[in-house]
Structures are given as C-alpha cells and as structure tokens.
What does this fold into?
Amino acid sequence: MEKTLAILKKIIEQPYSRAASWKMETGGKVIGCAPMYFPDEMVHAAGALPVALFGSNDAITLADMHLMTNACDQVRSTFDMLLKGKYDFLDGVAAICVCDQVRFFMEVWQLDHPFPFFHQMWRPYRMDSSTRPFLVSELKRLKSNLEIFTGIKITPEALCESIRIYNESRSLMRRLNELRRMRPGIMTAADMSKIIAASMLIPIEDHNKLMKELLFKVEKETSKGDERIKIVVAGHPCAIPNGLLLDLVEDLGLVIVDDDFFSGGRRFATDVVLNGDPFESLANYYMEAIPCTTSHFPGNWISEGKSYSPYGDYVIEMMKRGRADAVVLLRLMSCDPFDLEFVFLKKKLAERNIPYLTLFIDHSLGPLEPIRTRVQAFIETLKASR
Amino acid sequence: MGEETLKVNQRLEAQKRLGKLIQGHYSYAREVEKKKDQLIAWTTSGAPNEILWTMDFFVQFPEAYAATCGAKHAAHAHCVITETHGYERHLCTYCRNSLGSTLAEIEGKGAFDPLARPDFLLVANNSCILITKWWEHLSHYWKIPMINIDSPLIVPGMDQKEIVDHVKRQCMDLINFLEGFTGKKFDYDRLKEIVANGKRSAEGYREVLNANRHDPVPATFFDLIGHNFPNLVLRFKPEAEEHYKMMKAELEQRISDGIVPMPNMKYRLYWDGVPYWFAIRNLSEKLQSLGMCLVTSTYFEVFAFERLDPSRPLDSVAENTAMFYLNRSVNYKAEVTEKIFKDFHLDAGVFAYALSCKPFSISMHYIADTIQKKLSAPVTIIEGDLVDETFYDEERNNMKLQALAETLAAKKR
Amino acid sequence: MIVAGVDVGSQTTKAVILGYGQGFGGFYSEAMKPTGIDVPEVSKMVIGEALEKVQLSFANVDKIVSTGYGRISIPFSTRTITEITCNAAGVHQLYPDVTLAIDVGGQDSKIIKMNSEGKVLQFAMNDKCAAGTGKFLEIAAQALEIPLDDLGKISLRSRRRITMSSICTVFAQTEIVSLIARRTDKEDIAAALHEAVANRIFGLINSVNPEAKARVVMTGGVARNIAVVKLLERMLGREILVPDNPQIVTALGAALMAENLD
It folds into this structure.
C-alpha cells in the first residue's frame, strides 16, 4: 500500500508534471478546469486531458495588482500562478461560473493571459424543469467548442464511454471513502485528500489503475482501536485543503471520517446515471447533485421557527453517516456564498446541538499556533461534555 | 461660447419634480401598507418587472432603498445590525443594508424610513449571484415566497436566442405562479400597454443622458444620477416619460441659454461604478475645486432598459432581463466605455472601486487600463463603498483626484 | 498538594501557585513578568518568583499546567491546556454564576461561553487581526502621545462623536495623524478608537450567540481600560464584572486545572 500511496502523494508535490509529459508523449491538448463541477468527461471525450486548477500554497505576489484584494484565496492564488507562467503549458482554461468571483475574474484572466481555448460555462443557479433545457444547451455548447478546438468529434458513444470511466473513478473513490469512514484511522485525511486530488491531475485511466491497486491493499486494513474523536470536515473550499492543517487536526486528537471537499467527498458523491442521451444524463447529474452553497433551492425558504439550510442538512447527514461527534468547518475568507449560507448553517447546527469549530484555511496559513490552540480548545470542550 | 457668457446655476427644475415623484412613491407605499388593497413586491433592477406591474403589484426596489440610506447616512447602522447576526463585513453593503433594515423591522427596533412590507419577492441573478442569496434571506425573514429568474452571464459564443428563450420560459413560470398567488388572470393587453410606456420612458431617459454630449454640459453626472428612478421604478406609467420629456426640454434650454452646473469647468470626466452615495457632496466639492466636471458614466446603462418593444411584449421583457448591462462580458463593457469616452469627448476617468461590490469592481482595473492605453486618457481609481462610509478614505481619495487634475494640467501644456 | 499554573502570553507571562490544605484557603501566590524571547526561561523565573513569595521552591511543586500561546515550549510542565479552558476555569472559580467570559489581551481576544459548571460550550477568537485587541490601543496611545494607562479615562472626556474609517490597526495610525493635523481633539479621537475596539470585540461576542441573561466577566489587560468596559456594557445591555487583577485569571485557571489532573 505504501508504494501506491507514495506515487499518488508525489503527484500532488508536482501537480502538473504528469500533464506536461502526457502532452509531449501524445501531442494532445491539456485543459485546466476549475474543480467546481466542471464536466471533465466532456474534455476527456474530446481526447484532451482535463487538469484541475487548484492554485498553490505559494505567496501571492502578482495577482493583487489586478484584482480586488478581498477576493477569495482560491481565485487570487490561481490567477497568481497564471501570471507567473505556471499554467503556460495549458492549452486552455474552463470553468463553471459558480459564484461572482469566478464569474468575473475568469474574464480578466483571459484578457491578461489569453489561452487558445477559453470556456465559461453557465450552470443555472436555479435547477428545475424550466431551466434544465438551458443547461443541456450549455453542455452542447461546450461540446461544440471542444470539437472545434481539438478537431475531434465527440460522438454520443464516446461521451458515454468517458462518463463510464469517470463513474468507475467515482465508485472507486467512494469505496475508499467508505472504508475510511467505517475504519477510522486506516488512512490520514491529508493522504485521502491527496489521493482524490490526484485523480484531477493525471489521466483518469491511470488513476483508476492506481486506485484499484490501493483498494486491494486497503480492503485488508483494519482500524487499530482509534481513541480519537470522530469528526467530519465541511465547507467545500474550492482549493485542496492544506495537508499540514489536516495532519495537525488529526495529530491533536480528532479523526476525520468524511468531508465535502471539491477534491474530496463532493467529487464522488453521485454518479452520472447513463440513461440513453449522455447530455440528458449529465443534466440529471447536475440537477441531483448534493446541496451546495452556490445553488439556489426554490421553495422552502419559508419555515416557521426553524432555519432552512439544505447544505446544513447535508453536513448533518454526513456526520450521522460517519457516526461522528462534531463538525469542523474549513472556510476561506471572502467567500460570498459560504458566508451567507453560514448564517443559517450555524443556526441549524445550534438547533441540533451539534458542536462545530470554524477554521479559516487561507493558504497563507501563517504560524500553526493559533490553529493548534483552537483545535485543542475544541477537543477539550468535546471531552468535557462527554 | 466664451466663459464670460456662461451662467452658473446648479438647480434643475427636474430635480424638484423628481423629488415629488420619489416622495409620491414612498407615501403611496405607506398607504398601501395600511389599506392592504394591493400586493407589494420587492424586486431587483434587472428582473422582468413589467410582469409584476401588469399584475398590479406595488413594486419597490431594495437596491434603490440602499442608495437612499447611503445618501442619508443611515446605511452603516443597518450594516452593523447584520454583523450582530453573523454576516461578514466584506459582504455587499446593499445586501447588508437591506437585511439589516429588515431585521430591525422584524425585531421591532425600527429601520430608517423602511420600505413597505413585501408579500412577494422577485429576483434576477443578472446583476450578480449574491443577490439571489440575499433574496433567499429576505424570503426567510419575511416568510414569503421568492422566485429567481436565472439569467446567464453572457459570453462571446453564446446564442442570444437560447438565452432569451431560457429567461422567457422562466417568465412564463413566473406568470403561472403569480396567477395562482394573486387569483387573477395575467392580462396580456395590459402588459403591452405597460411595455409601450416603458419604451417611451427608456427613450426619454436616453435623450436626457445624451444632452451631456454637449460641451459645456447642462448638468453634471451627480445631478443626473437620481433621474434613473423614473425609468427604474415608474416606467410602467406615463409619468416617467413625461418627466424625461420635460427634463430634456429644460436641459436643451440651459444649453441654448448658456447655463452651466458649475464654474471653472476645465475637464470633462468619466465616472465608473456605483456612486458613493454618502460622499456625493464631498466629491462634488472636491471635483469642482479642481475644475473637473463629471459628464457621464456606464452606470446609466444599467437603467437603460432599451429592449422594450410593445410589438413583442413578453419577448422584449425577457430580452431586457437577459441582456442586462451588468451581465455582459468585460470586453463588452470596455467597448461601451470606450465609445462613451469618444461620443462625449471625455478627458479622463475616475473609477470608483467599491470594496463590497464584486460585479462592479472586479473588472474595473482592466477597463481603466484599457481606457488609459487605447485612448491615452489619464485615469485614477479611488476607493470606497456603495453605502458604508467606514470604507471611505477621504484623504487618500482627494489626493488621487488632485493628482489626476495635475496630470491633466500637465497634458494641456 | 501544591500546584502551579503558568500563562505565557504574547506580552506578559503570569504564574499562580495554589496550595491545598483546606480548599482554596491554603495559600495563593502570583507573579507577572514581560515574556521576552526565552519562554522556558521566563516561565521558570515567574513561577520561581511566585514560589519565593510563599517561601517555596520548585521541588515543592507537584504539578504544573502551562497555557497561553507559548505553552508548548515549556519542557517542565506536567500538561499543556489551552487558555480557553483555563480562562473558563479561572472565571468560574471567581464568579461561579458567570456564563460568558471576555478575555482581551495584548494580541488576542477570546470569548468563552460556558455552562453553569464552568465547562466551555463554545468559543471564538480573533482571526489574524489585532484590531480588537490591546495592540490596537497600544498603537493608538503611541500615536496620540498619551500613556496607555490614561487612554481610557481620557476618551471618556470626549464631547464629539467622530467615525474612523480604518479597519486596520496599521492604517489607523495614519488616520490618527491626519485627524490631529485637522485639529481634532485627542479625547474625540481616543473615543472613536475605543469604539472601534469595542465594536470588534462585540462582533466576536455575537459569534457565540450569548444568552440574553448571561452574567459577564471581562479579563485580560484590556479589562483595565474603563472606556472599553463601559462601551461593552452599553452594547451588551448589562453589567460587566472585572476582577481586581484581570490579567491573572487564566493562570489561576491553569493552576486549578493542575489540581484536577490525575
């Protein structure tokens, strides 16, 4: 297991080296896709390699000259890497505009540092039968753009095949997640996060192979009487959470049994159920996705007395599923969708008496001391209430 | 026209009339609240409001309310209330003003001159995505239904017909819902009439704006900004068109009589972004002292509503929403800005960065750069916020304006 | 049994010695020193000083709990416990019916919500920003050229309310300078600065959803500032209790925790 795990972890150290070598070997196109819900299957079906735009932990030095400094870390960091030429090997960038920051910043990216392929996809903020047709036409527009760019026709069969491969990836990752949830401690959260993130940085077929090898070994692992307090981590920051932070949390006495990171639980939560037409199937996938702070749920905002937070319900469900005792929220500063959701989320957690801790995880973590204090204090609180 | 023949008179008759229109609107609101003989809706600037007017809702605009609160220095207090409830400080202050005043009303503490309590909420996400979440919170606090019209960010390559159809489908849904909600049938003839009024109002508005192409201008940008109110809030009524007709006549009269809004008009300036509602007097004084006359802005484009067409009522309403200015690509906005610079013969640009407003501020730097490079026009970016005065640094901003004036003076030599 | 609690803060290190014969009525000693850069050394010195006052030495001490940001650098402590838990323990000892504690020190602000047994339910800390802490007031005092200890009193003499726009401690300095240049009264500037600090602390308080009737205690160096306390009392709509030595409470709590260690 150690060997496969080491290979997967190494990918995160040099996130784009595999993509660069793939490009040289095959002459294919590499497209940077923002990790928030972008349909990588489509890029795959066009014979191109989708890689996630994750940003990095490096200090942000250039981005602030162009952008608002109170933008979220993810956007600033990604833009910074762009300006520093770290994304030069990409043939294109693409994203779904999930929030105002991504929506407006992407345009500035393209103007500042144009790519041959640039695609902003719109996922309707409200998803129901009247907005669904537009979602389908957006998926088709992406298909046409990819076809024009790569010169490869995306047949329905090719797209279905790509969907199948990504479904396989999701089911392998789901199984691994299930194992770590049932047997806390067999894998650190930092390692788990890297394993999943790696799937977004190398050809999916290669990752599936590594996952199968890894699972074969992990299936045999048993939890060694872990005394730590079980928690789930939520907040779905659009970046890869810092491994040092996750390690610190787990070293201090908590064990993470589930999460909703974009490079984690959110990635494999549901499959694209293939049902004849692949575009209709993808549209269903979006419509049935797990709740997110960046989507709008029409209807039940009116409720007597109780707070309404579909996202909060999901977090609580995740906690119960993992038999966890508490929630740790990982937040990025200046995230509009989350900050608005949080007002109701915390009410919901309070209503259900669920202890939670908030940690701001902007990549310039600074000294780990303050985080250590908060986590330790939280653990002391949890222990005292047992 | 020599400087000696120009007379300075800042007061516009149109301003008095506007005051009455606004006053009328708000006192009517108080009556409707008391009598309860009309349903009240809160909506956003870019939503398909013709549908609400057709169904005889009394329609109010929390965004306009925020501007009023900002101007009356009441917004900061509302924003502070939201902080008590867990809202972060970086969030849009229009939103926090609205939620703060709502919370104050609901908790019986009283807000500043509040809007009438709504029965229904309509929102379109064509100004930003945050606005929909803001409306979700309003829906929760007021315990009333809300409907969001999804309006995609328009990027090159998108098919306009698809977008408009998408919005139109949602408009049909909205009509269906409102018929159930009000118990009334939607009157398509009434819609046509309302759209016709709106078209005339929009044309009148454009003509008023274009009066400032003249050198010297009959009114400054700050004199004109309040006048988007009729086109935004009242365009369904003939009063809006009448107001603009009279205003256009007044401006043209001023032009032929040689009346100007300020002395010492050395430079013609462009303003970008939302005005800092609480700092208008400050800025006017400073700009005047530097001989800088603010002529126009793309801010007006937000309230243009020029797609209304009574020959295709519902389609044009959907188009109005779909093609809303704020929802266009930054390239488009830069092009419009460039055109304005040329059409209005502008010398320089003041870009008003608003800390809490991402849609306006994110691309600002890029547009400012474009203007500077393509037109060799000096620009400056000042910092502040829509309505929260604690984000406004008077010293630094005044310094930047001074520096801009010095750059312009050096250019002239 | 003799126990020691040492609280290593960013500015000062405090120690409390408790001796148990019959309950708390055994002996008690305290000491405080500036922290400096050698945390283990200064901790030893502070504990030593407190021990000396009651004619004891290190050899007599059974258990030591260290707390505060420097707690893990102390090799001789029996256990490290966060200042959240320690502060709550100390507050509960002094004021058993208090359920909301506000602790504002040199660089840290903490709000602790506890139950009637002194157990922590929820807490909040300032994030990467000194605006609601003693640091802000220290910088303000420097910029206004007023001794820090007099700052609060002077601000109470203010007669005109002004709003300061600076959110940031660093930029506040520039703003103060320009206000002075415009002949604004120092009392008025001081009042505005105190309001800014109190607002930040109040924001933090709200994030733990305090009970409407909870009794409140304030500790930490800033509790000595009468203006901040009065402002917070007004914002909370109730009295805030301040112990005679507000800076020693966390160290006291650490000593109490030491007593309970098994």
